[in-house]
Amino acid sequence: MHIVIMGCGRVGSTLAHILEDKGHTVAIIDQSPEAFRRLRSGFKGRRITGFGFDRDVIVEAGIESADAFVAVSSGDNSNIISARVARETFGVDNVVARIYDPRRAEVYQRLGIPTVATVRWTADQILRRLLPEGAEPLWRDPTGAVLLAELDSGHLWVGEKVGALEEHADCRVAFLSRMGEALVPERNTVIQDGDIVHIIARADEVERINAAVAARNEEGA
User: Fold this and answer.
1) Spacing of C-alpha 74 from chain mean position
2) Taking 80 as the threshold, does the pLDDT of residue 5 lie above it?
3) pLDDT digits (tens, 9 = 90+) for 9-18
4) What are the structural domains of the chain?
5) What phi and psi values does residue 202 have, to the nearest 5 degrees?
6) Which of 33, 113, 121, 208 is exposed most, by the fewest CB atoms within 10 A?
7) Are 69 and 94 in contact (CB under 8 A)?
């Protein structure tokens, strides 16, 4: 694949190195030539000075043959404009933009531009390490409406089928973590001792689901 990256900050340079190590070709754009100092000496990709929404600049970066475009500069507006140019003008399907303001994420998502709201994501990651397990979701979509959460299923669900838990709590199990590996279960998959249950649900439903599971545990205690 050929990937064009706008923004040679810490994220952009890290992505460039990882993608190149995986065998992809990379072109990276930044308005400041000094930013390219973050690239290792052996980086083989193209370095283009300019703005990612400038047609001539992204053409020089190979956007016309690009398989993906990533906008990770320090400006929300620059990122979203560049992403839209890549998608709408050059027909690049695989486009991602980093957004600092999570309030904008839903708007851009509706425009068909996948976004990573870094402030919300970073806060979630920190809180997951500060608070008890399950206090913060493992993942949430950019709008915040849907999330992946760890469910405190309790020992009383051991030996029960996943379908029984889903019916009892009216939820959907996304996967199980079993002995350090992820398992996508069937409805008749039996929950084993030590399994960690992960659900996918609307954010406003997680509290109800946890309460339903907890009530079952209390009944059997």
Assistant:
1) 18
2) yes
3) 988 999 999 9
4) 2-122 (3.40.50.720), 133-220 (3.30.70.1450)
5) -65, 145
6) 33
7) yes
